[in-house]
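Assess this today:

___
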Amino acid sequence: TREERTPDPHRMLEAYSRSALTLNFIRALAEGGFADLHHPEYWDLDFVQHSPLADEYHAIVGAIAEALRFMETISEAPLSSAERVTFYTSHEALLLPYEQALTRTVPRRPGFYNLATHFPWIGMRTADPEGAHVEYARGLRNPVAVKIGPAMTRSWLRDLIERLNPDDVPGRLTLITRFGAGRIGDHLPALIDAVRATGKTVLWVCDPMHGNTETTDSGLKTRRFENILAELEQAFDIHAAMGTTLGGVHFELTGEDVTECIGGARGLDEADLERAYKSHVDPRLNGEQALEMAFCIVRKRRQMRGG
């Protein structure tokens, strides 16, 4: 409704406060060993029994533990780097007044930094090379990213690269592709060619969530696990065939036991969505689906290496 879309600047302050609370909580978990890879047996793997790949998933967990033991044996010391995780934050630089308020210089470093996030990204709708969002990102020293979808053209992409990374600094610009499982094969190869023609360096990331959103008969937005995985696997294959590297993945997920995405080892269907649908925006993978997706990525990488 119009009332629901009325801007409320105080919500930006609320978002800032909640983000700070969340980050402090994550830091406490990280320092407390929550992400310690030495204990994969603590992972919640109940869902695995519902998958035909159960034995393979358990083998992956065993391989992680074995690899850590091997590294510690040859180094004759605990692998402390596996006990904690260094994490970074990223969000869409959409509300420019909010981003501007948190952009400043820092001691002993030239230029301006967005201190609200390590890695701001620009959505497709605001990726006009002559627009305010690109102009803002152009002036930052942070690494930046742009979402690109089926509407992206070669000339548009070329202009974005020239605007955001004119000096061809490695790591400066990331392109996050989001096409959908049925369209990635038609669009990604041409855009890889377009980037190659510029001679510039970019980091490629796949967002297999955005382009696979659908609406059920009851009006709920959802995504199918198999479509998410299909787009991701195609991205791996296309990059391998074209001599480029898929450098990262972008998921919307939660550790909670929500029912927002269909599929996965437990075989969630549309009837399950009503049980624990909590998102106010986009459907997310739940904790089990996210872990299963990680296993699927490991499996795909092994297949590509011939293992």
